[in-house]
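# nightly structure sweep
# worker-07 picked up a monomer target from the shared queue
# config: single-sequence mode, recycle default, output format = structure tokens
# input follows
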Amino acid sequence: MIKETKYPGYSCDALGNVYNKHGKTMRICKSNHISLYVDGVQTKVYVHRLIYETFNEEIPDGMVVMRKFDRSNALHNLYLETVNECSRKSAITNNSREVAQFDENGNFVKKWRSARQCARELFCCHSTISKICNGEIKDAFINVKWYR
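# output follows
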């Protein structure tokens, strides 16, 4: 079943496909968004949110649309979750490795429970922290190492 979205000229189906006003399937970017044009203004919309809102209701404040199994945007794969529940799931895992920061003289400065936690505090990407710790980046802006 194809249903009209809240954006004029665009529709979607329960399988996660989005259609333009000509009935053609729109291309979904790797980051799971599409560009919709409303009154000549481009708007980027996440597909899973668009599908959920079209077939269910407006997403309440403090809630996010999550997928049950995979990256599928099909309606049967989507559900609402609070922001707190979502953030608890992405917390530290057993696979996390502690990261330590050292100054120019090699003196210990600070320790984090994971590369993600370190990256959040230092305003950089967690993969950059991991690459520095693994020795893939030699001239780094910060001196961090795996702590063990």
